[in-house]
Amino acid sequence: MNKITAKNYNFSNVKFFTPMQLSEHYNLYTRYIDCLNKVNLEMSYSDTNECNQNYSSTRSAQKSKTFCFDAIKLHELYFENLTGNNTTIYGSISEVIDDVFGSYSNFFEKFKCIALSMRGWVMLCFDKYNGEYYIYGQDSHDDGVMLYAEPLIVLDVYEHSYMIDYGTNRSLYVDVFFENLDFKVVNSRINYLLNLEPKEPPHI
Ligand SMILES: [Fe+2]
Q: How many Å lie between the centroid of ligand 1 and the Cα of residue 198?
């Protein structure tokens, strides 16, 4: 795997978060990149006699690789849709939410309930397996990942994402996240998946 470098994000229009909260979160993201690059550099498969599922350096490295790589992808999706721009819902995401959840308020209540129930991540996704949209949560970066589920709206609910600004008040943090959610980014993700915008995947 090629070496990965951190992407830059413009948080200048993000409201109700302090620069300290955002910069500390971004710094955490860069450490996942350092981790993945280190694992890829040091991973070896030289002696199969030392490879086993109870304990081996390859096992440890493989576990770290999936943890860190998923953490990188999820944080990039999160930072990308947290801009403070285009915060009024419109377009494909508006149609999807009305069709699937009946109304934006119904969607928000369900999303928030899952956000308060999980330990790591919550997202609205489009599942390519059955062509359905649904909300699901993960307890950690690499625990509960749903195969084929393409993330559309991604919210980090680890405490590190809000503790500096909101203490333990995750409910308020969820509200604030949605006041900064960039629906242009979300629409780009949906339109790409539906082949309405034949271009590079927006999160690459
Ligand atoms: Fe995070």
A: 30
